[in-house]
Amino acid sequence: MATRKKPAKKKSRKPAKHGKSAARKVIAAKKIPAKASSAAGTNPQRVAAILEKLDEAYPSATCELEHQNAFQLLISTILSAQCTDTRVNQVTQELFKKYTKPEDFAYANPAELENEIRPTGFFRNKTKSVMGASKAIVEKFGGQVPRTMEELLTLPGVARKTANVVLGTAYGIASGIVVDTHVIRLSQRLDLTRNEDPKKIEQDLMAVIPRNKWIQFSHQLIWHGRRVCVARKPKCAECNLETLCYAKDKTV
Questions:
Q1: What is the sign, positive or negative, of the torsion defined by CA atoms of 94, 98, 100, 105?
Q2: On the chain, which terminus has fewer CB atoms closer than 10 Å, C or N?
């Protein structure tokens, strides 16, 4: 007789584990706070108090690059990249005696100019920028430094920082806020921004600082950064903003 085959046993699927480890992951995920999209220190009252303190400390703060007109300020600002204002002023004291107008820089001997601005560093690139910007001013703008951000940004070697310096200091036009190394450091320490990119920092500051304070605010922050809120060991004991500041690297 033929023997009947026993029916094959169906393999039962094991239910997914939802043990303690999975539960812990869910709980941990819930505890992770959402990353803040903006700085916490931008409360209008706090910002107003910071501006008041800066006015008290630096009522007459201004650009420390020596110049007699907008063109000289443009050249000095280009030279100031990765260089101190003091060194730039030492160089331009003689430079502006030889090169008195845009045409002089535009059609200068590159080798001679390189040698003359060598103390400011990056002299080859700066020579190209100075000559390129000067030539554009002569040939496109009738020898006059432009008065708009859009036009200034078309000049070789000119980005928003340089354009803001020229517009604010030479023309009194508040098109933005100058963001240099000092402004970056201090605006982060004061929790006015949590960005690293200069363009984003400028946008953050423009959103919380009244427009009529944009020009003076940048001068004051730069002065404060050079004199008190220095990079490595800030002089917090001498700082009139100390009570408003909760930076991690405070020294008091």
A1: negative
A2: N
Whether the per-residue pLDDT at 153 is higher than 70: the answer is yes
Phi, psi of 33 (to 5 degrees): -75, 150
CB under 8 Å, gap of 24 or more: what pairs does 91-95 form?
A: 91/116, 91/117, 91/119, 91/120, 92/65, 92/66, 92/67, 93/66
List, by residue number, the catalytic residues: 161, 180
Amino acid at 64: E
DSSP string, 79-112: HTTTS-HHHHHHHHHHHHHH--SHHHHHT--HHH
Distance CA 154, CA 151 (A): 5
- In this prediction the pTM is 0.83
DSSP letter for each residue of 226-252: HHTS-SSS--GGG-TTGGG---TT---
Note the pLDDT of residue 26.
Answer: 43
CB 41 within 8 A of CB 33: no
Q: What span, in angstroms and rounded, lies between the C-alpha atoms of 113 and 135?
A: 14
